[in-house]
Amino acid sequence: MKISILAVGLLAGGLASAASAQDVLRIATEGAYPPFNNVTADGELVGFDVEIAEALCASMERECEIVAQDWDGIIPGLVNDKYDAIIASMSITEERKQAIDFSAPYYSNYLSVVGADGTSATLEKLGDVSIGAQRSTTGSQWAEDTYGNRADIRLYDTNPAAFSDLSAGRVETVVADFLPAAEWVKDNQDFGFVAEKIDIADQIGIGVRKGEDALREDLNTAIEAIRADGTYQTISVKYFGIDIF
After folding, report:
1. Which of 155, 123, 161, 124 has its CA nearest to residue 140?
2. CB–CB of 170/128 below 8 Å?
3. What mean pLDDT comes out for the span 167-191?
4. d(CA 156, CA 232)
């Protein structure tokens, strides 16, 4: 009888642990893309993507476990089950959809080109100057597709690294998403937009593994819920002063 009770107790404990593990949603973000996601000096993950992830978890009544993952490894990490979802301002592209699935978009994006004040660079002449961009992004792909045959395109592991070389004069322009570009220009007064908003019909979604349809639908429902109750707008205005949806 004691053995049976112990066995039942162990089984119940195991089921509770399994249920608890299922309640934790493991989310990856880049941690190097301010103001969307960044790591503070104290090692804390902060930013729009991080707060949206937390809001979605709260709406789904699941615990969030958010980790930083370098951009080049972020899709392989999802595919290899290191985490359950990517909330990292990732553009929904046909190429990426070959490897993973996406939620409905949670904001729309534009590209920008930034250069030093007084630069002779224009959008029409961008192929004649050096262009910096973060590798494996819509910005780098756009630069390569548009100017790749004649431009000096230099790719960086992170967006801040590209802007650092722009600031140091090692590259003449940087192609980046509009909102982080605007944030950088605001803090670097000797620089401005060569082109402020380039519409490439870019939609940003949450990445999930192929076949995780239940999770994808739960995330879609949660996106709708935080839009409906105003949580999304509050977070967006906190970071950008507007609703970026």
Report:
1. 155
2. no
3. 96
4. 31
Task: Judge contact between 107 and 245, C-beta under 8 A.
Answer: yes
Residues 193-229: tens digit of each pLDDT: 999 999 999 999 999 999 999 999 999 999 999 999 9
How confident is the model over 227-232, as a mean pLDDT? 98
Q: Which two tokens stand for residue 89?
A: 């301002």
Chain-centroid distance of CA 65 in Å reads: 16
> What is the phi/psi pair of residue 33, to 5°?
-145, 60
- Give the SS3 label for residue 113: strand
| pLDDT for residue 22 | 65
Q: How buried is 188 (Cβ within 10 angstroms: 0-12 exposed, 13-18 middle, 19+ buried)?
A: middle
pLDDT at 96: 98
Delineate the domains of the chain, giving CATH numbers in brackets.
23-108+202-240 (3.40.190.10), 110-201 (3.40.190.10)
Burial class (CB within 10 angstroms; exposed 0-12, middle 13-18, buried 19+) of 154: middle
For all residues of the chain together, what is the average pLDDT?
91
- The dihedral region occupied by 234, where left means phi > 0, alpha psi between -120 and 50, and beta the remainder, is alpha
Length of the chain: 245
